[in-house]
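Why this split exists: single-chain examples teach little about how molecules sit against one another. For that reason, every record in the complexes split bundles all components of an assembly together and asks for one structure covering all of them. Below is a record exactly as it appears in the raw files.
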Amino acid sequence: MASSVILETKGLSKSFGDFTAVEMVDYSICEGESAGIIGPNGAGKSTFFNLLTGMFPPSKGMIRFMGSDITDQASFKRVSLGLVRTFQLVSVFNSLTVLDNLVLAAVPFNSQFTRMSRFMLGSAHRDEVLSLCEESLIRAGLEQKRWSLTSELSYGEKRMLEIAMALLLNPKVLLLDEPLAGLSEFEISDVLSIINSLREQLTLVIIEHKISRLVGIVERLSVMHQGQIIAEGLPDQVLCDPTVRRVYWGADDQACET
Amino acid sequence: MINTLAYGLTIGGILYIISVGLSLTFGTMRIVNFAHALIYTVGAYALIAALPFLGGYFVPATVLAVLAAVPLSYVIERYIIRRLYGASIDYAIIATYAVLLIGVDITKWIWGATPIPLSDPVNQYLNIFGVSLPVYRLIIIALSLLVFLALEIFLRRTMVGKIVVAGLEDREAVSSLGINVEKYFCLIFVIGSCLAAFGGVLYSPITTVHPYMGFQVLLLSFAVVLVGGLGSMRGTFISAFVLGMVMAVTGRFWGPAAETMVFVVMAVVLIIKPIDV
């Protein structure tokens, strides 16, 4: 438990015009920890992730990852450092094949692009990349669909593909934005078992709307409301917090009993 | 009839070559790039400037004119377009329109406003079913097919091409894969601009070269891109030839309506299938 802080924010804020989506968020997560962030729609959870991954710059505050300040770093560089995310609406490339989606994630474009550019015509790297992709195809249960266009996959399969792509990027911290949203019960158990297997290997931050899904997966739970973190702690404690229950009134009132 | 068909295909081919660059930049960067019309114009003038130095040989002058687009478009991308990523779409329109206006005035300052005619570089005719067609136009049709095939191979078979195809769909998702999208956008912008210059070169012997030649083509190209569908390269190809035929057929019956008809088609397509940018 005494491991070092891998990702932290200090006074992180983001305003869009008069609207403050994220307000003075101090958040930190230790290496190897699995944490959840819950909150009603529009609480600022996704905006918080977008700030962490550098999709837009914060209005105020700073982000520190593995000891260095990444507040002003371009989003693609954060990925190479090991800060990787998935999106609330599954984001894979529909006009490419399943395999090509994985290849795009597996090729380390920024490190040695000149050598990698030969990959298009076949080279030693080709086999290396393809065997990595093959492994993740099997892990995601998509080995039958490698040549299919991604647009032909079901939403659940796309989610599995997106997670497989994220894992090919060698994340140290993986940010999952509502990974279970829009999935059937059957698909949810598939994704949950992948997430469970990842807990041992890397640091996870999961945004989820349905509180009950996170119990048993995350060690720590934070609640966001109107851009701020209003409660933080062990999942059971947080769910019985009176402020949290008021925010979630009607939305998930049985949460405390589960 | 065959004449109309050949004319439609020629116009379609040139429209495709010009529009596909616009389609690539519009699709990946979501930037409406009016400066595209400037590069097209500069391509035509660069050809005129290069011809005397190359003993009037059209092919090497064409290569030179297309290459002239590389530094010009790089500067435009690096210092103007790159500042507009993520900004509202009207900023891009204003900024690139300014580039177009300034560029057109510089063109006028260097070469003057008088239209310059160019003679047919091939000057041979082919008899097809009793109709004599300029070989040059047939070459244009063939070149446009070649450009299409080359782009298809580039986009489908190469890693860079796959990044571009992915970027056409969702550029944020591409940068979440740790890929520096801007670097590839710059490449796309330069390729697209070279094609605009190529289009300008190919069209100049058919029409005349003048500083404002880009404006008319720009609107037609936008119609092609919108009818073809945002981010669809094959759509752009089909739409260019369909609209080329629309122009040729309309022009055969009533000349002045030829271009108007293109925008009528565009309006109908947009009503049936609206685009949200």
